[in-house]
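Support request, please re-run this one:
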Amino acid sequence: MQTHRPVIMPEDEVQFRLAQLLLLLDAVADHELHGASLERIGYYDFLSANPFLVVPSDDRDAGRLRLAGFDPQVLAYASSSQRFTSRRERIQHDLSLLVAYGCCQVSNHEKALGYAITDAGRTLSTRFTATYATAFSTAAGIVVRRLRRLSDKALREQTVQWLRPAGHNGPAAALLGVLGAGPEPSFDFDTPRGE
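Re-run finished. Output below.
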């Protein structure tokens, strides 16, 4: 028995992240003709992988998420803010790879860069047949539909609330009974790490 095998998380694999981003960009294309900004994609990406931060467990969409395989009681919701920060740092790199592969394009719309899936990217995303791909596509569709009308400022502010364990009686708040309150996380979404 090997006791020193490294633990590999799917999010650590570039191919997994690129496939997930393609599925997300496909969901964005259903609502945003010109794609979405890098910042907005970062929020959509993380919240689509953790949809019960956005969707209350008694909401109509919660049933669809449960059928897709998401669980509002998973322990990962308790460390959402830390995982958001590390995941957000990789988005620009991953989008650059998708652009280089011809699966994503960047355009300037109203003085802002928007990332959108290309026809080649859409064709590739239809080939993903894993159960997780279907589940993530369901979550991405719900998250993008719910958040697309929020301004960038409102999206930032709302996400800060969702990432607080005690915020809005979400899944992270429910876990406090098991894990204890712990320290309040401190993070600033507008300041890059290391500054």
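The chain has a mean pLDDT of 80. The longest helix spans residues 80-100.
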